[in-house]
Design a protein that fits this description.
This protein is mainly β. It contains one helix and ten strands; from the N terminus they run E-E-E-E-E-E-H-E-E-E-E. It has one helix spanning 74-87, and strands at 10-15, 19-24, 34-36, 42-46, 52-56, 61-67, 93-99, 104-116, 129-135, 144-148.
């Protein structure tokens, strides 16, 4: 029987030209380790006479990853940002996310780092840092595909 345990989820991330071997992300924030925005899969229209139609739309899948201010995975993201800044070019990433508790694996093929928190906010303790990736479709290849584990 499946459970909804999150602690055994594994997020492996590779960055083309920088980390070709996937790296395991670790030391997530207290809550909301990684989240995905809801993406629209269709555009709808209803004519003035009340008849409706729908059309398929390709979509990006935005996600947010949050880490503790002390996370070892921050090095990966800081190196990624630095390499992009030095090259003046985008370095795309790919990922495999396994969720054993529900027996699912998700493969994300073509991601770009969209928004970053440059450093941890200084509060009572150092705050978590966020990184936003936008997963892009490539023609017939979806931004993210799902399969049994």
């Amino acid at each position: 029987m499946a459970t909804i345990t999150a602690v055994n989820s594994v997020f492996m991330l590779a960055v083309a030209g920088l980390f070709p071997t996937p790296q395991k992300l670790q030391e997530y924030s207290v809550d909301d380790a990684f989240t995905f925005d809801i993406a629209d899969t269709a555009e709808t229209q209803v004519g003035v006479d009340g008849y409706g139609v729908a059309g398929y739309v390709p979509r990006t899948v935005p996600m947010t990853i949050r880490f503790l201010a002390s996370s070892v995975s921050l090095d990966l993201f800081e190196q990624w940002i630095g390499a992009q800044d030095a090259a003046g070019e985008i370095l795309y990433c790919s990922a495999v996310i396994s969720q054993p508790s529900i027996g699912r694996k998700y493969t994300a093929y073509y991601g770009t780092l969209m928004r970053v928190s440059t450093m941890a906010d200084v509060r009572r303790v150092l705050a978590a840092r966020e990184f936003h990736i936008s997963w892009l479709p490539q023609g017939p290849i979806p931004a993210i595909s799902a399969a049994p584990l």
